[in-house]
Model the fold of this input.
Amino acid sequence: MSKPYDLIVIGAGSAGFNAARVADSLGKRVAIVDGAKKIAGLCILNGCMPSKTLLYSTEVLHLAQKGKTFGLRIPSAAVDMKALHARKKKIIGEFADYRDQALNSGKYDVYRNHARFIDPHTIELSDGRTLSADKFLIGTGSKISVPATVPGLTTTPFWTSDDVLDLDFVPESVIVLGGGIVACELAQFLRRIGSKVTLIQRSKNILKDHSPAASEVVQQAFRDEGVDLHTDTQITRVAGDAKGVTVKFTSSGKTITRRARYLFNALGREPNTASLNLADAGVKLTEAGRVRINRWQQTTAKHIYAGGDVCGPHDIVHLAVAQGELAARHAFGIKKLKPIDHRLLLNVVFTDPQLATIGLQERELFKQGAKFLVASYPFNDHGKSILMDANYGYVKVIAEPVRGRILGAEIVGPNAGDLIHIFSGPLAMKATVFDLLRAPWYHPTLAEIFTYPLEDLADQIKK
Ligand SMILES: Cc1cc2nc3c(=O)[nH]c(=O)nc-3n(C[C@H](O)[C@H](O)[C@H](O)COP(=O)(O)OP(=O)(O)OC[C@H]3O[C@@H](n4cnc5c(N)ncnc54)[C@H](O)[C@@H]3O)c2cc1C
Done:
């Protein structure tokens, strides 16, 4: 066995790669182990980047199809699936090559194998070699879950998000199981390319981690676009045959049956821990099956860190990156570190209208029994969004009632994923409503819509 590494990173995704990058910058000897055929991580290969590439195309398509609304004559805007697929492959290929160059820059020893722990300081690779290290970072991400509680799902052929992201034809009809972010984003993509889409969600609303009001705006937009949307359901049977799939479910006491050519299982993902033999390393899991971590990303074995989807608490790339970086800095004794501040949580759903939140939301503040003020303003009463014909949704700002410190914001509407960043800096810097009102707001922009709720909050505080 060779000399121990300072750090071995297992999984070269967003958390693992960034932990390795920081450790290298601190002069450490680093190995990266990843068993995938392509090693660029979920975000680049089958997550954020391909999905956002496709969603951007269908947003352009949707606008083109609405040409008449804008006084334009665009007779037959339609998707060209082969071209769409080729564009996505080209863009993702370039991102993946870029990551590949970084991995193979000579800074790291890269092992293209799966790994499992055989003791707290040693891993065994799938080709039988063993490696040891002083510190480890587990960044093995997540995999699609197939809940056994959905009768018939395990025996019915289904697509995952990987399959939907790789389509080069328009499927005539698809049933989407689930109402989370991936389900909603890709259901709208499928609908906009021309598929007949049925979405079946167990909870009362889609995007259930968001406020009911925000979810309802997205639901309305989906229904207006012709998605056959069912919420508050219980699936009783999923079955497949040569011609397609049938899903039986109950909703409001009625039994409903839907048939489609394809089934898309978007019921969620689960942490990738099973093959790691974590017990022999002294690494424990939470009840939800994630790797248990403390605020420095240390697992129950203090020299083994974890970052990204494998530990959570949220499957979001910028958090995976931040966790990987924090873990590496902590592992190698960098002083004056700060743990990740989850009060700044930033969340974006790239549906149209987009849904974005930052900071504390009303639901959490109610739970905490905290005092707060809220003000909101609708996009259908704002100049810029009206001229864009982007009338769904609203902005909402939440502030502390005495000094007016910003606590959080929620946007459902046009460009919400970008607009929410108006609050990133101010929240991190603990700014108040009055600080934000001193800032200039250009006219006519979507951003200036925030002057209305901010002024409303300022008035509420002055009273
Ligand atoms: C369709 C979709 C869209 C998404 N869109 C967004 C978005 O817009 N914004 C956002 O913030 N997030 C988005 N996400 C979530 C985001 O992609 C993930 O949170 C993030 O990529 C997780 O990074 P990670 O480093 O934890 O894991 P990954 O990037 O999944 O990396 C894990 C790596 O570990 C390797 N591995 C696993 N087991 C082993 C083993 N035993 N030995 C060796 N290697 C192993 C795997 O091969 C893999 O390369 C999306 C996810 C999906 C599925």
